[in-house]
Amino acid sequence: MPINIELIDELLKDYRKPDDILGENGLLKQLTKALLERAMSAELTQHLGYKKHDPKGYNSGNSRNGTSEKTIQADCGEIELEVPRDRQGSFDPRIVPKHRTRISGLDEKIVSMYARGMTTRDIEGHLREMYGVDVSAGLISQVTDAVIEEVKAWQNRALEPVYPIVYLDALYVKMRHEGRVENRAVYVAIGVDVEGHKEVLGLWTSAHEGAKFWLSVLTELKNRGVKDMFIVCVDGLKGFPEAIGAVFPLAEVQLCIVHLVRASLKYVNWKERREVAADLKPIYQAATAEEAKLRLDEFIGVWGPKYKAIGKLWQANWENVIPFFAFPAEVRKVIYTTNAVESLHSSLRKVTQNRGSFPSEEAALKLLYLAIRNASGRWEAVQHWREALNQFEIVWGERMKMALGR
Q1: How far apart are CA 303 and CA 295, in angstroms?
Q2: DSSP result, 74-91
């Protein structure tokens, strides 16, 4: 509705300093109190069906019955309200419902701060300093626990029938499990749909990675509507080829090049890391698998005597290193570039680093889900996707049509 400027000028005629508006007893708090009380009074009139002192109310069976005091927490601090009552006790204000001690906005602030990694103690202090609101740890848990149902719905939502590329990765989070704190893996699946949009498909926790675990994850994805995935990029191969072969037998397993390079550099002293990384680049940037093998042999010839483990690492995983050599350079960038995975993990580590450990798996997943919700809102479509999709149509066109029901 339009704002009456003259009314604002009248309210501000005694304004001298910011505290006159934003302070403990400032105008904003007084206005909030007055507006809420007037709104509840109007709601009661609507509920009863007649205005105050209106003769229609005589012998109506219900009438006004004074007020009761109620303290609520709002963005501008704690507010003491006079809540109107009716004799039958049937009136429940919509703007400040019964048993509600917070007005809209405060819950969103709590969830937003929690999603950015602030601890319960941090949130308590921030709300007290910024808004003069005292909230308990129990209240913060109650507000954030409301997200759990949202997490369950998200984890069980229907998925697209085709994800040409799926990235599977893990991060480790300390959480309490069966009475003791463990460093447990949280597995994240990120799919790229046929439009080139990235999407987190789900979160799973497990103390042990293996074929049985991956089989359950992939079966869940299939049950949620995924009919086909063309390339699955993974950070390791423990149990994965067997599981994916059982659920998506036509999918190709591609070892993540970024993880392989990172694993290689663990063997290198810090002074030589830049040089070793530069010498690894010709391997995965080669034009063909044959040329890549020649570049690997050259690398081993130079660095093998000093870092034999690197050559063995690449040779042991070679069959899962080379699938993307069948594609042009533009497509390879889409396949082995893990910016989506890396940026997401950076966001997730940022929100978990303030916590020594989580009291439960549910608490960890709750925070990680909120962080994913924040991060994925900023994602853009994959670069060079149209070029990649053209290649996918040529190689896997019939599979795509079948999965999409065309």
Answers
A1: 12
A2: ETTEEEEEEEEEETTS--
